[in-house]
Specification:
Layout (H helix, E strand, L loop, with lengths): L1 E9 L3 H8 L2 H8 L3 E4 L11 E8 L6 E11 L4 E8 L2 E13 L2 E11 L4 H14 L1 H10 L3
Antiparallel strand pairs: 1-7, 2-3, 3-4, 4-5, 5-6, 6-7
């Protein structure tokens, strides 16, 4: 198992960033071109939610099953924790934390990934994927959608 942490700053209130970070529709938009989802719920994440979707890399590779349990989605502390698996991953634990900064807000993704002998490549992919979310999030926030 490997852990990685990525941090991105935004010039919006933490409430706005939190609303975007916990919205399934925004997730689909932010991941467009990188991961396509089938069966993604509508609305926001909720504590106790269990989500089964099909994911396709770049929307081109055959869809594969992926499962996520939302362990915590706290609108007071702006904390989201999930336990995920599928598409070649044994365990993908994800913690999202939004905090206030002097310039707006910060989103920190902390990941613990276990994919057996493929853990290192999955960590490289995760670093790319979570970094690639930043620019589309900025665009969504600037559009006023959140």
């Amino acid at each position: 198992m490997r852990q990685l942490t990525l941090t991105h700053d935004y010039d919006v209130s933490p409430e706005r960033l939190w609303a975007l970070a916990t919205d399934y529709g925004a997730l689909a938009q932010v991941m467009a071109g990188k991961i396509a989802f089938e069966g993604l719920p509508e609305g926001r994440t909720k504590s106790g939610q269990s989500v089964d979707v099909m994911v396709s890399l770049f929307g081109k590779l055959p869809p594969q099953p992926y499962h996520m349990d939302v362990l915590e989605c706290n609108d007071v502390t702006w904390t989201l924790r999930s336990s995920e698996r599928g598409a070649g991953v044994k365990s993908w634990k994800h913690r999202v934390q939004v905090t206030a900064t002097d310039q707006g807000s910060r989103l920190t993704d902390t990941l613990e990934i276990d994919a057996g002998w493929l853990t290192r490549p999955f960590c490289i992919w995760a670093r790319y994927l979570y970094s690639a979310r930043h620019a589309p999030r900025v665009r969504l926030l600037q559009s006023g959608a959140f």
